[in-house]
Write a structure and sequence with these properties.
about 425 residues, mainly alpha, Serine Threonine Protein Phosphatase 5, Tetratricopeptide repeat, two-stranded antiparallel sheet, about 0% strand
């Protein structure tokens, strides 16, 4: 009997111990869960506070901690994407916006922001698709209020609802179409933008530039005038109107025209760029350099300005400086065939013929019909005694219309 009671007592104790342990584990799990939630909330609040203070590096640190716990949390993804966008981490921001859109396909703010970043990267097809998707969002989604940030702006320009941004979206789709050489589509989108909001000078400027590309000069001038009527101080409209009404001036007339624009707006990079070109064409290379320096100080993201300054440096016998500028140009625009060709020319002058050939290879890769690149690659090969290959390049250049190649073919290729 005592033995039975002892066994019963052991059983009861073991059950009590089991229940106690189970209860303890349950409480521990609950505690751990609450702790994780607390940590997430705390990190998010610290990240948000840092973001509002524009300390984006610190904000991203705390948001990374949040997303390690909850990789698809909407608020943390959105805020980290905005941090990355403000600090120039374009690919990282696009990645975050894409994760957010995958989770929530109708996220208006993410679509708009990703579209802007694609546009900034000159990826016009995906940018256009994002903006077009915004036009098809359900009515409930278009009630969202979000920050409107321009393509070239780091900060927030204004708060807007999607309804008030319909015109902007049509404008961006028009810009994408313009850059993809779909000019008729671009004109239709700009028309729609202007119909929805006719007091925006940028819309008239963009349509005017498209009219110009399609040879509709009179209509282009009319749009630049409308832009100035809408916004009398708009320097871009003034610049384009001056340029078109003066019939693309050359020499001293061009220099004088662009100088007038610079006097009224000393921070207008396009005017410095074009005056630099006018100086270059007039063989005033030091003055051209000074204008390209100023244009790049205002906007260092212009591959064409780096390229043009490299040409001026070549004329001034600064080959190493020219090569450095051309590196900047191809970093900004990897398919810039003229810049690759320019590197080949500089390296040829430095007698680095094998490296020059590699640069000409890339120029031809991006533009197989680049006759001068074929010709100059042939010159570099001649210097390496690769006569057969050189003659092949000269014949290709001649076939593409470079008559100069015939003279060297007659001498070297027999």
């Amino acid at each position: 009997m005592k033995a039975a009671q002892g066994n019963l007592l052991k059983y009861v104790l073991s059950v009590l111990i089991l229940l106690t342990l189970t209860g303890g584990l349950s409480a521990q799990n609950s505690y751990q869960l609450n702790t994780r939630e607390f940590r997430f909330t705390k990190n998010y609040q610290l990240g948000l506070t840092a973001f509002n203070k524009e300390d984006f590096q610190t904000a991203e640190f705390y948001l990374n901690a949040c997303l390690e716990q909850q990789p698809r949390n909407r608020e943390a993804l959105m805020l980290r994407a905005m941090c990355r966008q403000r600090t120039g981490q374009t690919n990282g921001a696009i990645s975050d916006y894409s994760l957010l859109i995958k989770t929530e396909p109708n996220h208006a703010e993410a679509l708009y922001s990703r579209g802007l970043l694609f546009y900034k990267k000159k990826q016009y097809e995906p940018a256009s698709k994002d903006f077009a998707r915004m036009l098809d969002l359900p009515q409930t989604e278009t009630q969202a209020v979000f920050y409107k940030t321009g393509v070239n702006e780091q900060g927030i320009s204004e708060v807007a609802t999607l309804q008030t941004m319909q015109a902007d979206i049509y404008n961006y789709i028009g810009l994408c179409a313009h850059h993809m050489n779909k000019y008729q589509d671009a004109l239709e989108y700009f028309d729609e933008a202007i119909t929805r909001f006719e007091d925006n000078a940028d819309f008239y400027i963009n349509r005017g530039l498209t009219f110009e590309v399609t040879g509709q000069t009179i209509r282009a001038i009319e749009d630049f005038k409308k832009a100035l009527k809408t916004e009398p101080g708009n320097e871009i409209a003034k610049y384009n109107l001056t340029r078109m009404q003066s019939g693309q001036p050359e020499g001293e007339d061009a220099i004088a025209s662009y100088t007038d624009i610079i006097v009224s707006n000393p921070n207008f990079s396009e005017a410095y760029f074009n005056r630099g070109l006018a100086y270059y064409n007039s063989k005033q290379y030091q003055s051209a350099m000074a204008d390209y320096n100023r244009a790049l100080a205002i906007d260092s993201s212009r591959a064409d300005a780096w390229f043009n300054r490299a040409l001026a440096k070549q004329k001034l016998k600064d080959l190493h400086g020219a090569l450095s500028d051309l590196d900047h140009a191809t970093d900004l625009q990897p398919n810039f065939e003229k810049a690759w060709h320019g590197k080949g020319v500089v390296l040829t002058k430095m007698e680095q013929y094998q490296n020059a050939i590699s640069m000409y290879d890339l120029a031809i890769h991006y533009d197989p019909d680049y006759a001068l690149a074929w010709y100059n690659r042939g010159i570099a090969k001649l210097n390496l005694k690769q006569n057969t290959d050189a003659c092949h390049d000269f014949n290709r250049a001649l076939k593409l219309g470079l008559i100069t190649a015939k003279k060297i073919i007659d001498i070297k290729c027999y």
